[in-house]
Amino acid sequence: MTRACFHCHQPVPEGLNLHVDIMGQSQPMCCYGCQAVAQTIVEQDLESFYKFRQTENNNILPLVPDELQKDDLSIYDEPEVQAEFSFSSANGQEAWLAIEGMTCAACAWLIEKHLQQQPGIQKVFVNSSTDRLRVTWNKEKLLLSTILNEIENIGYRARPFKEGELEEQFQKRRKGLIRRLGVAGIASMQTMMVAFGLYYDDIDSTTRLYFWWVSLLFSAPVFVYSCQPFYANAIKALRTRTLNMDVPVSIAIIFAFFASMYATITNQGEVYFECVTMFAFFLLTGRYLELLAKHKAITDAANLMKLTPSFAEVWHEEQWQTKPVHQLSAGDKVRVKPGSVIPIDGEIETQKVYVNEAQLTGESHPIPKAKGENVYAGSLNLDTPLQLIVTKPYQDSLLAKIIQLQDDALALKPKAIDVADRIGRNLVLGTLIIALITYITWLWVDADRAFWILLSVLVATCPCALALASPTAVSSAVSRLNRLGVLLKNADASTNVNAIKTICFDKTGTLTEGHFKITDSWFAESEHQNKWLTLACELESWSEHPISKAFTARDSETYLQNVENIPGKGLYAEYQAKQILIGSHAFLAQHKIPMACTLPSANVYMAYNGELVAAWRVDDQLRNDAKSTISALSQQGYHCVMLTGDNDGRAQEIADKVGIKEVHAGLTPQDKLSKLQEMQRSTPVLMVGDGINDGPVLAGANVSVTFSAGSELAQASSDVVILNQKLSSLVYFIQYSKRLARVIFQNFIWAFGYNGIILPLAAFGFVDPLIAMLGMSASSLIVITNSLRLIRK
Amino acid sequence: MEALHIMVPIAIILVVIAIIIFFWAIKNGQFDDLERQGMNLLLDDDKPKKDKKTKSPEQE
Prior knowledge:
The structure holds two protein chains of two kinds.
Chain A: E1 18-22, E2 25-29, H1 32-43, H2 48-52, H3 79-83, E3 86-89, E4 92-100, H4 105-116, E5 121-127, E6 132-137, H5 144-153, E7 157-160, H6 165-198, H7 205-226, H8 228-239, H9 246-266, H10 273-302, E8 311-316, E9 319-324, E10 333-336, E11 346-348, E12 353-356, H11 358-361, E13 366-369, E14 374-375, E15 380-381, E16 386-390, H12 398-412, H13 419-445, H14 447-461, H15 464-483, E17 486-488, H16 492-496, E18 502-505, H17 507-511, E19 512-523, H18 529-540, E20 560-566, E21 570-575, E22 578-583, H19 585-590, E23 604-608, E24 611-622, H20 626-635, E25 639-643, H21 648-658, E26 662-664, H22 669-680, E27 685-688, H23 695-700, E28 703-707, H24 712-716, E29 720-722, H25 729-763, H26 769-788
Parallel strand pairs in A: 18-25, 18-27, 25-26, 27-28, 28-29
Antiparallel strand pairs in A: 1-2, 3-4, 4-6, 4-7, 5-6, 8-9, 8-10, 10-16, 11-14, 11-16, 12-13, 12-15, 17-29, 19-24, 20-21, 21-22, 22-23, 23-24
Chain B: H1 2-27, H2 34-59
């Protein structure tokens, strides 16, 4: 198509000529916002950002948050407000900020470098994996709002937040696990090295004993320190009188270590220190990868703190004051700036305003609200400054209720049963019984060999490969999907998706793009289409009405005089000394224009010199991959359903276009959830949605998918977040989950097959403990290699 | 073979030092964000050169 903006990769509108010199080349820009951001980056010598940032995901590139008013931020400078999230340290004031718009490590670097150039900044650290920034600054020299503004100047959005308790625990566990992993890694290298020397037969007995003691020294910390999580889990399971993988893992580790130690002290038999350390290292790696995936989900949820502004401007003691929202009570007067999120439920006191409640109801139209009508927390004030009287405290607001509903649904969510764990439990019991029988039998046959054969049985049948079969495959799939723009927040989702028969879609923002575009047009005379469209765009550029945003300026020249805006109805102006009108059907009818239009669904009309010249249908446009996605899914035998809060007619129209047969329209968040639960009685359901109103239904679905551009609440309650904004990623996710299931199945077959063959051999004394260890390691390696196939290709 | 009697204790000491450094690094948050550190190498590399280029005309 046309040229793309160098900064945000969006197409540059025709006729716009903006450039910034970057790395010696003049690069096109799509708007003044991008130009300003790019200019700042260049002026600060931070151009290498453009060289190294990741650009695969077009839609999540840093953009200028235009809905934000800069003076909004000054509330964060007030001492009482700051006390909620920041604290004083020896170096100055310290706070955590959550950052939006970060896509890769280059962004983190850019923010750090840019802030370090500000006077008064003591320390900045950006963590790109959690999207957080820790800043220490001098209170006297610098205001927090300046810091937030500076971050905004380079195209990101930062807001203070408080770290949750759950997260702190996670951080502690993660650090503990890295330490254990490091110790196991270093020790297994050393013991492997020593073990290699021991594999040679011509080693003299003194050196051999010396090596045994050295191995013992290296593996002792692994046995005592690194393996603690396994012991802890095993004890936990035994206490509740169940068995898990960690029980035989712990038994094998403890037996192998003590047997080796016994052999070292008495100088007879065999040692298996390298088995212990390698085994611990492999298992800990798996655990660490698993924890990382979970940690990502937790931090995402914690970043949600910024959903509604936590502070509101209240009329108190004859002036406007900033107060935390949870302190407001019914009857308070609150002021909301245009472009801001309404902080609390209330009754409008000022004249007519337009609000967007799409996040609450799913209805994508701007809604006019007159004096005395109710507005709800979480909706967006679109155009005019507004004052409202609080009707309900925050805890009782509609938004808070939806969040409550979501929490309830999440608690009731059907849990996947961990197949590996269930099979493992029975297998563990079997192994333990067989090992015991073998030991007792051998005591009768040959008492000297009994202990070593018992060890062979335990090591050979150790469900190591079995324990690795599922987690390694899942971590490979998580990392691969992530690179393809699908974030798997809950790894179980990938397993659950294979049982899915029904897929539910939200309409606004899921099947459609979620913002206005011209979808159809009609012209009285076909030859002057461009002229009329250009005039319409210029005329609409005077309007504050949200629908006018669909008419983007394409020409900077002006043709019109005496433009007048009648808010909520339309506009008129003079073009070549004759009157030109644009607006709703009612507006034109009021001016006695004959409505001879053949476009039945039109909602914007234009007349010139008393005659209708053009009409448009401005609507929320269908995603261009919606139809192909639905038909691909239907072909694969999935039953597709639409659940929407929007009205029946519009929902049906979209459903017909994409080919969805079952439509449920006009649903509240509660209705959506009960509809879903009704469907769940017959088959497991996957839900795709993006708004706040989808929060509860997403939480209740067996598998839930949302978009990263969607509401934060929806993201918090979803298992899967699509980062590249393509609906077709859903098809890919399902396909990939099937592949994952196949790989896990192969791994299980291998692990079972191997254990099935080696067990009788070991029990009858044909397997030396060393062979048993090699067999077990080889088996684990085969499973890991098979899982890694998921990362490639 | 006697060399082993000296080398192995040295190896043990080195391992202990490595583990101490590793623990210290974790405590200081060096492992908080593994992706970043690799990228920083690339990004910071260009900066001194550019500084010279852009600053020299001003200084002259």
